[in-house]
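Q: What does the assembly look like in three dimensions?
Context provided by user:
Components: two
Sequences:
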Amino acid sequence: MQSENKCSILKNPVSKQSKQNKGMSFEEIYDTYYSKIFRVCMGYMNDHGRARDVTQDTFITVWQKLDQFRNESAIGTWIFRIASNHCLRQLEKQNRMPPGEMPVELEDKPPPDTEGQVQLLYRCIAELPEIDRIIISLELEDVKQAEIAAITGLSETNIRVKVYRIKEKLSQKFKKYEQQY
Amino acid sequence: MSSNIDLKALWQQQPAGDKPDIKAVIKKAMGIKNKTRNKLIWTNLVLLATVVLIIYVGVNLDTRVLTTTIGVVLIVFAIVAFMIVSNGLYMGLFKSHPETDTFTYLAELMSIQKKQQFIQTRVLKLYFLFLGLGLFLYMIEFERKMSFFWAIVSCVSSLGWLAFAYFYITPRVFKRQQADMNATIAKLQAINKQLHESEGAQ
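A: Here is the predicted structure of the complete assembly.
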């Protein structure tokens, strides 16, 4: 009975039709934003398993709340907000749940090999304070600064200053690590 | 070299790996949500059945002793109040708003954490206090009709069980949760401070 209910959630044509926005179905949103959201989560956590879990959590929320989205902001801004807040929410879950447990356990593949400099960038970002991590991840994901302001609740001027400072800090970290290795 | 690093180009090179089948993800997540909801419904039903039973017994008792009536009222009050407060918290958890901006969401998270902490400390203490007191008053009438030995046995076993639950089981369960919660609240406050400092710096 319960499994029938679960299946009907996905098959119900009414709910499927309502899970659309400006001509974009949920599946299209998922295809368009999956990699972007994953990178933002990686920027925050620098942990492949956790980033994958939080990306999944984000899209579950998007699926649940898409009906309530009222076009007050761009769909991208709305999704990035959900992702940033899910990243912050990880504070609570870190102690309770080992990584890779929620909600679908994929085959436990090792994280892909990435270039040294890419790894270094994500490592440097993960060492920043939480809000800075979110801001720089969104900036590097090409989100407009006005949108970053709407996502974080900070002013646009503040975001501009912060982005400049964080980039400087990142460059210094890069230099430092490059000298070390 | 470092001054010319193209951060955006490097950022984009991070592979996202295989995309999971979103339908399977949603199906499983809904399953977990349903399980949590069903657990909550069952807990409520058991508590409600207990309340109904206590009221039924209380109404049908041929008693003229005031302590028994007060005992029944206190027990029912303890259970109903606990149900209302804990259900209110769970409803709040189901209705959090991750689509709001970080400022608002952090405030919401902190409020949820504090409410949870409040329930696990004060509300639970009051629950045990009212339940214990109610049980004690309720039993007076019946214990007076028992022999001294059986009155002591019945009093020690029921109040002893409550004391065991309150002093041993509950602290063990909540000790770890409290530590996690305090750590989370401290961390949330630290992040909140980052946001406020950013705004203050302007």
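Follow-up: Chain B has five helices and no strands.
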